[in-house]
Design goal:
Elements: E1 3-11, H1 14-18, E2 21-22, E3 39-46, E4 49-56, E5 66-68, H2 71-77, E6 85-92, E7 98-105, H3 116-121, H4 133-159, E8 165-169, E9 175-179
Parallel strand pairs: 3-7
Antiparallel strand pairs: 1-6, 2-5, 3-4, 4-5, 6-7, 8-9
């Protein structure tokens, strides 16, 4: 049975999210051998996807390892943010091989961080307006439809376009596109 060993945890900083992830030097023995190079590609597993990430160290002086390469893409595609807690595990398989698994814990959201619409969805009736959460959602959808119609009309008026793109909203809120 595969055995997972926690290598490190870190709360993501602005630099970690926007550029590269600085990782503790003490984990170098847990990473693949650099074989005299200053960089090695490792594969992180997050969810069901495998992410190739470059782990590099400085060529001279303090080695200071970082994850770079596809790191930024990994962050963006998985919607990680400053304050999220990342934990890296090394998973040793029965065959003697290993891979790296990532878990991310999002900070708890307080009601002060939520939009008015999200707050109204958490309550049966909004005390300030006396309307239900469903009414808020329907009103929001109606406002979106009106904005899209106005934008579409503006495009037709400005460009004289004969063909239009109609947007229909399904009950689930997803948009379907259909050419007229």
């Amino acid at each position: 049975m595969p055995q997972a060993i926690k290598i490190f945890s870190k709360t993501l900083t602005d630099t970690d999210v926007k550029k590269r992830l600085a990782i503790p030097m003490k984990i170098l023995p847990e990473l693949p051998d650099f074989n005299g190079s200053h960089a090695v590609k490792i594969h992180l597993i997050y969810g069901t996807k495998l992410w190739p990430i470059v782990c590099s160290i400085r060529k001279i002086g303090y080695k200071k390892p970082i994850f770079s390469g596809e790191w930024r893409n990994f962050i963006l595609c998985n919607n990680f943010n400053v304050g999220d807690k990342l934990t890296l595990y090394k998973v040793n398989d029965e065959e003697g091989t290993s891979h790296y698994k990532v878990e991310v814990e999002k900070p708890a959201v307080t009601s002060g961080d939520l939009s008015p619409l999200a707050i109204s969805l958490n309550h049966g009736v909004d005390e300030t307006t006396g309307t239900s959460a469903r009414a808020h959602v329907l009103n929001f959808k109606h406002e979106q439809e009106q904005q899209l119609k106005a934008a579409d009309a503006q495009i037709k008026e400005n460009r004289g376009v004969v063909t239009t793109l109609l947007l229909f909203f399904s009950q689930s809120g997803e948009k379907e596109k259909k050419n007229e």
